[in-house]
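A protein record pairs a chain with a discrete description of its three-dimensional fold. The following entry can be read in just this way:
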Amino acid sequence: MSVHSKLYEGKAKILYTTDDPEVLLADFKDDATAFNAQKRGSILGKGKINCSISTQLFQQLEASGIKTHFIDSPAPHQMRVKAVKIIPLEVVIRNIAAGSLCQQTGLELGTSLKQPLVEFYYKNDQLGDPLLTRDRLLLLELATPEQVDAITHLALEINHFLQEFWTRCGITLVDFKLEFGVDSQGNLLLADEISPDTCRLWNITEADPNRRVMDKDRFRKDLGNVEDAYQEVLQRVLQTVATQN
């Protein structure tokens, strides 16, 4: 596979075209950002770690019947993916109150939600990725009603699968972000990545609100030991996959 030109560079990945128009190469970066890129830094080895975790989780989801853009991982920090048109929505699924949900509602950090909450955010840096109602989403024609229904159903299905998987890793899935895209045949596919960058993960056996954090909140909140936390998540994922196989 020959790599051609840079197609897009985001906060965490660079996408390159290849000799196959239906295939892109995603190169995962060590760059770290928070608060809509107002805080910037680097996490040593993050690109390889997130690519490895995402590879394992995409493969697990594919095996369970969830269609994703994943093809393979030709290098530790690279992933070949199906070319999709990204739907400009960040889909957030919440199981436990944390982050902006606490700030905007007054819910206490760590409050278990009676049922998973699915939220849609407009993927638009200039507007600050605002939270959207369904009607606003449809008004802006960011997705069709059918796509919104399908995304909601898939998000809950993915959440159910990942909750069980992360629990086997000894990790609580607090909340996480997903992105979806449509391929050239019109199929809705899970895209982007699933990693400590996009998931809020807490160590099940740790009660301390700072020490339990195993995700990018360690970077956001200057908790330290960011690389160690990411590496620990990867090791637990690999061990869990090896055990079930």
